[in-house]
Amino acid sequence: MxxxxxxxxxxxxxxxxxxxxxxxxxxxxxVVHQVRSPEPDRFEHDADRAWRRNVRAAYREVSAGLDVAAxxxxxxxxxxxxxxxxGRALTPGLLYGDVRGGPVTGKSPxxxxxxLQFLRWCARQAPQAHGYWPAQAVANHALCGxxxxxxxxxxxxxxxxxxxxxxxxxxxxxxxxxxQLPRVVAGNEAIGSVGGALVGPGTVDAxxxxxxxxxxxxxxxxxxxxxxxITWAVLPxxxxxxGLWSVPHTAPGKTLVGGPxxxxxxxxxxxxxxxxxxxxxxxxxxxxPVWLPYVRGERxxxxxxxRRASLHDLDLTHGPAELRRAAFEASGFVVRHHLELAGARxxxxxxxxxxxxxxxxxxxxxxxxxxxxxxxxxxxxxxxxAAFLARVTAGVEESAAGAGRWARVARRVxxxxxxxxxxxxxxxxxxxxxxxxxxxx
Length: 441
Hints:
The protein has 441 residues and is an alpha/beta fold. 32% of the residues lie in helices and 23% in strands. Helix 7 crosses helix 11 (381-394) and helix 9 packs across helix 12. It is globular, with a radius of gyration of 21 Å. 55% of the residues are buried.
């Protein structure tokens, strides 16, 4: 049995799993941290805690008593902080969607230049920093003393990385040198070791999730229920849709169309706190208001950081249960809107991420889309996918192509007809209000 460990630096925690050859979880850990939003358009971490100390703590916890062959880290893109020679953060860890990334372009991380704007800000704040590193590099240095990333993560920093190397002129214009940027490792070769385990170069969290989710066929929809809500419709051909992102699928010949939304756990946790975590379920399908979930603007398909949340059609029959249901429906409506814009002929949703443990979220997703939801067996999909990539680093897998064999469904959640019919009417209202906002109405 070859044990490998995957770590996923999520927005609110570091999740870790140790797995065997078949992808069975031998140990898991979750080390929490806060996401900071001092202003509506700022989104950051205490990078020293979230990307360095918590990574070490999660690895120690999940690897205790196990003979680990290799470890790999997954994290979001883009992200960046300045670090000293010991890899300790000198600035906050900037996260995707932060205003310090510059004006919103609507493009994917590999096209938007957001990371370059992060670099400019970090270089101004800490001009003598030893390095300017994304979360993956900080975590790798915490594990093995080397600040490195893989080529896939590097590509998301374009134009700073020109697909072959760091561009010295672009770095200099931002106030940095290429020596301050992380080492880029092609493929899954080891960059170092921790306690005898090889350390891989890391990856993007959404890619790691995709590898082991099993949403690989036409009509599948991968929905990641995390702090960020991510929808990827699997299509048989390349298709570009205004407002959405198109990326190659790891399955040959397939394309993923969709993208990230702020209508995920960030919004739903806020709504839960606002409603004092009401646990009484809504009883009447017709008595639910419509909630636009844009507490900090929206990413795809609106690309509008100035959008704000609003509740519509409230009346005296509504209580905390109805408002909570409305919040979760809003998340489901965002997924449905992505699918309609993509022109996807969806047949099922494959749901992954920590939000799959929230029954109302999964049921609302089914009711609002009218699709069955297959819930993955291991919610820590980012960590699980990273663990498979660690197997490639350890030399026990030829490539990531075999990761699909770890895809397992724990249960299927079917839509409830009464709720689906009522939600359909609210969805039309949701689209009407969203489009009115887009037009400035």
